[in-house]
Amino acid sequence: MSLIETKDIWKTYDMGKIQVHALRGISIEINKGDYIAIMGPSGSGKSTLMNLVGCLDTPSKGEYYFTGNRVSQMEEDELATIRNKEIGFVFQTFNLMPRATAFHNVELPLIYNGSSKEDRDEKTRKALAAVDLTDRMMHRPNELSGGQRQRVAIARALVNEPSLILADEPTGNLDTKTGLEIMQLFSRLHKEGNTIIIVTHERDVATYADRILFIRDGQIESDELVSTNEKKINGTII
Amino acid sequence: MIFWEIFKMAANALRINRMRTILTLLGVIIGVSSVITIISALDGLEQSIRAELEFLGPSTFIVAKMGIIRSDEDFFEALKRKPLKYEYVKAIEEGCDKCVKVAASSSAFDTEIKYRNNKLRNVQVRGSEYNIIDIIDFELGQGRFFTAEEDLTRRHVVFIGTTIQDELFPGVDPIGKSLKINNVKYEVIGIAKKKGSSFNDDADRVVFVPYHTFVKQFGHPRGRMSIFVKANSVEDVPDAMDQVRNVLRARRHVAYEKKDDFGIVTADAVMAVLNDITKFLRMGLVGVSSIALIVGGIIIMNIMMVSVTERTREIGIRKSIGARQKDILMQFLYESLIQSLGGGAIGIAIGVILGKILISLMNFDMTPSVSAIIVGLTISTGVGLFFGIYPAMKAAKMQPVKALSYE
Predict the structure, then answer these.
(1) Is some CB atom of chain A closer than 8 A to the CB atom of B325?
(2) What's the rounded Cα separation, in Å, for the pair A168 and A173?
(3) pTM for the whole thing?
(4) What domain range includes position B25?
(5) What is the interface pTM, i.e. ipTM, of the complex?
(6) Alpha-carbon dihedral of residues A111, A116, A117, A121, nearest 10 degrees?
(7) Are strands A69-70 and A4-15 parallel, antiparallel or unpaired?
(8) Which domains does chain A have, with CATH numbers?
(9) B345 to chain A nearest CA, in Å?
(10) Which terminus of chain B has fewer CB atoms gathered within 10 Å of its CB, N or C?
């Protein structure tokens, strides 16, 4: 069974008199352990697709199955539970709570699923250790560098051991060197068995993945496997 | 567990916006404290008057010239009435078989009581017949009350309340001593028991002298005289009152179709009138001060609306990592509840203190009113919930995608 399966999903926005079709019938299948990049120019619908795949939104038409569950008809609170347990988000702008420490930021998803204090402590430390931030636990985001902030966000995405990590332009706000480090971190997480989807408009970033989906005008333009000679591992072209 | 964590988040958000929180609190504090001030002052007033009336037992009533006045017309009509006469006492004793004790009583307040160098002014001097002690709720502490014979022979004996004992005879046994009432000598023969149930010391600031001795000294007090009547039992009070009315109407030649030209007072009737008055006071004043409370509520709502909009992105982040609608709802509801209850608690404290000051300015005393505290906490919870629910719902219902992309 595939982790993600979409069947002809559409997303339509009502803009007064006209209707805007952000997605026009997308069917994809993603398996556990996949590392996929979604590419496309701005306005192509790649962010809309990510929102649907991430259960932040539901399609106007079509079916979406996540781990075999029909997400397309779910209520907001059911979606929230899936987001909490099954999906870890990494955003371009980090989206951390500015007043909270790194520790509390990472702990937050555990609070929302009612984990015990001991459980939260243990998992939060583990997640922060996985992104090498053990020594920065009690710092607030404004006391951390951009790369460190993004690693806090990644730790928060990892803390519930989700089935899927969804990263939306994770290097967009970082300099090249730091972006490289973050991409290396994703490669490592993938090797450790995580399923990762990265949304980006940079081919350099996309080639860390095994497979690239090109979106244009709300439709899949191409679905290609990254050739081994283009594939980036640890920041070098093999 | 999760609720406690969300509560901590809410408290934290308030701590971060300290100035805003204090200003919001202020709105509730002003509203609650003004409501509580009024409620506790009125409660205190009622308590005090109730205590004053307690000396009238449930089976006792008073016949007086004026009675209970409910309007201006009543008052002017009552002023024109003829005073009560002493002979009515005998007439009531004969004509009312449901009455067990009947006593004439009158009092003077323009008094000065002296023992050696100690002086007390404006003490209630009550001139009563010997059996008054069996009618009103005053008990014998030490010594004795005066006798019928002492009354008829106009002896200068006095029975004193404990306040008089404490203030005039510190460290001295008053029994057998002589004190002066407006420069006339009286011998102290007995002391009342302290009125334990009273909230008001003034209930013990009284002296009793024989009725006829009082008349001799203070003149014939016909206008001021009232007749205290004790019925057989509580159940017999209505019958006893009817009999007394018949006797007096006959004696005073009141025509069949005319209203009574005298009044009958019971503790219940006084309380009923008092309740009528305070009910309107309560509604009016509480109504006015509720406006302050509503303003406080609107401040909370306004601030919460601003806060929700300002924190749209935060809400989006929380939702993206799995906060359910109810988690967000609770967080914002906690924020408005903490503010309204916090403001409420401070407001209650200020209100009770102000109410106490107000009551003491009127020379009454009060115990902190439990009802004021309950009312205060209830209304501030209500205000927090009522004015907090809409902004919290707005936050909870936000769409995660839109909230996340909010700049």
Answers:
(1) yes
(2) 11
(3) 0.71
(4) 2-52+272-404
(5) 0.93
(6) -80
(7) unpaired
(8) 32-58+76-237 (3.40.50.300)
(9) 28
(10) C
